[in-house]
Amino acid sequence: MIYRDYGKTGKKVSLLGFGGMRFQHIDDHDECARMMVRAAEGGVNYFDTAPDYFGVKSETVFGKGFAELRRRRLPYFAATKTFKTKAADIRREIEAQLKRLDIGAIDFYHVWCITSLDNWASRKRDGILDTFRKLKEEGLIKHICVSSHLIGDEIETLLMEGVFEGVLFGYSAYNFKTREKAFNAVRAKRLGAVVMNPLGGGIIPQHPELFAWTQRPGENPVEAGLRFLWDHGDISVTLVGFRSGEDIECALKAMEGYKPRTEAELEDAKSRSTSSFEGICTGCAYCDECPQEIPIPQYMDAYNQKLLKKEGDAAMKERLGMHWTIPASGAGKCVACGLCEGACTQHIPIIERLEYIARAG
Question: What does pTM read for this prediction?
Answer without folding.
Answer: 0.83
